[in-house]
Amino acid sequence: TGKPKGAVHTHAGCLAQMTKEIHLAFDHQPGDRFFWLSDIGWMMGPWTVIGNHNFGGTIFLYDGAPDFPAPDRLWQMIERHGVTTFGISPTAIRVLMRAGGEGASRHPMDSLRVLGSTGEPWDESSYLWFFEQVGRRRCPIINISGGTEIVGCFLFPLPIQPLKPCSLGAPAPGMSTEVFDDQGR
What is the pTM (predicted TM-score) of this model? Predict the structure, then answer.
């Protein structure tokens, strides 16, 4: 979005940053099964791989479209493979909702503990659909914001904090978050 911007990295390195975020933001535990619907080449790919492996988690990967050969493919995979953490973008949820949210309510998905999102702002109806239909009103949605430029998150809520729909929580632990104008002020 616009001219390239400089970034000062003040954390202990990419590996430590990603590991910290997976642990703190998503309460990652050994044995968790992590599935983030994303292109593996985007920031969430290495973030998922690195963070999970440091805690003995399993990464769930699949090939193909999320809605083929059946519109409820995502929910089938989550249920069948015991996924504990599922991340997705708000746009992908809106697409699934427009398709009727096919099958989310027919799959118990009892293994889910935490839901995640990133990439763009939520609208309240999509957020609530994700929380109610996929998370069954028991799984927190950890909405994170950051990016490739900073190798991680600058804002995220903690799963132990009360969550407001669509919110990003607060500055991520260990991140000094400041906003500058074009003149560096």
Answer: 0.88
Amino acid at 136: R
Q: Are 119 and 149 in contact (CB under 8 A)?
A: no
Q: Which CATH superfamily is domain 14-171 in?
A: ANL, N-terminal domain (3.40.50.12780)
Domain segments of the chain as ranges: 14-171
End-to-end CA distance of the chain: 20
pLDDT per residue of the chain (185 residues) written in tens, 0 to 9: 567 666 565 556 788 888 889 999 999 999 999 999 998 878 888 889 888 888 889 999 999 999 899 889 999 999 999 999 999 999 999 999 987 777 898 999 999 999 999 999 999 999 999 999 999 999 999 999 988 777 789 899 988 888 999 999 888 888 888 878 999 98
